[in-house]
Amino acid sequence: MIEVDNIKKIYQMGDNKVEALRGVTLKIEQGDFVAILGPSGSGKSTLSHILGLLDTPTSGSFKLLGREVSGYTEDELALLRRNETGFIFQQFHLLPRMDARANVSLPKLYTGTNSADSRAEELLDMVGLKPRMHHRPNELSGGQQQRVAIARALINQPRILLADEPTGNLDSKSEKDILSVLVDLNSKGITIIMVTHEEEIGKKAKRIIRMRDGLVQSDERIKPLLQDRVILKKEKSSVPQSEWREYLEHLKEGFRSLWANKVRTGLSMLGILIGVSAVVAMLAIGRGAQKSIEEQLASLGSNLLILRPGAVRVGGVFQEAGATTRLTLEDSKALMQKIPGIKAIAPSVRSRGQVTYLNKNWSTQVLGVTPGYSQMRASNPDKGRFFTEEENLKRSRVAVVGVTVVKELFDEKNPLGEWIKINKTSYQIIGILPEKGATSWRDEDDIVIVPLFTGMFRLMGKNYVDSIDMEFEDAQYLNGAEDKVLNLMYSRKRVPVSQQQEAFDVRNMADIQEAVSQTSKTMGILLGSIAAISLLVGGIGIMNIMLVSVTERTKEIGLRKAIGARKKDILQQFLTESVVVSAVGGLLGILLGVLVTMLFAFFAEWATSVSLGAVLLAFFFSASIGIIFGIYPAKKASMLQPIEALRYE
User: Fold this and answer.
1) Domain 2-240 has CATH 3.40.50.300
2) Are 516 and 239 spatial neighbours (Cβ–Cβ below 8 Å)?
3) Is the pTM of the predicted complex or chain greater than 0.85?
4) By the 8 A CB rule, do 291 and 607 touch?
5) Please, which residues have CB within 8 angstroms of residue 333's CB and are 6 or more apart in sequence?
6) Of 338, 451, 618, 640, which has the fewest Cβ atoms less than 10 A away?
7) Which secondary-structure segment (H or E) carries 576?
8) Residue 246 has what pLDDT?
9) How far apart are CA 359 and CA 186, in angstroms?
10) DSSP type of residue 414
């Protein structure tokens, strides 16, 4: 089964080279029970590690089952360890977070078969521990732990079993029990190679190889190797697991590992949780603010131009706005007739007015408009109605009021049908305007609207208008419309070229809306970017914690590799743990972000909007953070050599 020829092993210890093996040659046949004896430093453990495929020789030939394996890659050696050999360690190397059955089943994780639990129970029954299969290592004695380790080494039906000082940490009774188990296994055809420094234990074997200073001193057969010995045949493996089941097993293993270190896992999640919740909350607040602004802008009208008189310069002195370029009702008619694409037009007058009701009074803005204003400026009353063209022509004393005026004058009372006084003249309230909100410079709901002619001739005593709103059928008509409006007004008012720049002011509401909307989007992106920084910091925290985890679990990594785990398997395990931390932290962060958003909306009365896109984006980034920042620790873990990891202190 095993043939080694002149193998050497040299360790580099700083500037010095240490020869652990100086040229060992031997053969081991199937079914033999070999004891390798020697004092500490003789090279016996190094030889067993090489024979058990945990280490590789520096030079020489090593054939296993007729195959030259000295030049195999680590993953190729892992497959051989998985299928052909089992290793029993002096320190047991049981994982403390798993019970006995789970520890025995562990090698099956890397074979892709699904019969681990039933096979583990059979083996535990064989070593006399089935009643204690749900006990963890700290609940078992040393001898019981070693029997669990033996059962684990047998789970994949190895043809070669290596035992490194299997009785070194045991009492006399446990020592006899373990040796009895090994002798029984050898009688069933398993080839056993046992390393020990005790002569009495070595005599339980059929052959004793004595070593000193890295060389074989003697090779003595003390019991014959029977010619009719049992030839062990491996049973067929169970049906291989599908790839998704393999990932599911890694996921379960990841959860188990993380649950065993709850405090560290919680701290790892905390960074991602805060980052994701900040992203969700900031994007919700930013989007809510943008939506609120867009609603306010929409209430001002779309595809709208507003014409106002300017302040021209006479004798080097600016005159009052409109002093020489008054707008009239005839101007609005001319604009409607001569400017293409105008859908509706609404001249208006405005002033401040003192509004009173019973013993309450309030100073507000009074606006006189035509009935078309309600459609143009999205001002159809929520309650009541807007005035008609007939009421405008009759200069009726009717009014439509904003919600701020209602609050100041009526409190909780319904104002419809009530009479108020504007500048000591009575007006009946026929409608309440929809709430539009306030900006930092103006409250859009602090207003009273009356018919245009009522405002001009009853309230303000004006025979001109203060502004003219023009709504176009489509945005395409706005291109060049400003110049057309200005040229028409220059012609009608006979404005000299030298004064045209200041004569009129035309505002394009579409441009204003676009500018404010872009500013809102920029602020939303800025808030999201600031929150993303905290997510990045959380990712760095995950990487640091995972690096600590790799360091703390170095021996576990060595054990997993010793029982057949490839680089890919170790990489997947640690990467899965990292992704689990970030994904669970991300889900909790989303819930916290939504909760924070709701609290802001409730207590601060901020406009917020949690979108599915923002939630998916936050979760995607949290999972990506786990992958990106988990790759390096996982890669570092997968690159560890089995024997070096097992020796790590």
Assistant:
1) yes
2) no
3) no
4) yes
5) none
6) 338
7) helix 567-599
8) 65
9) 109
10) -
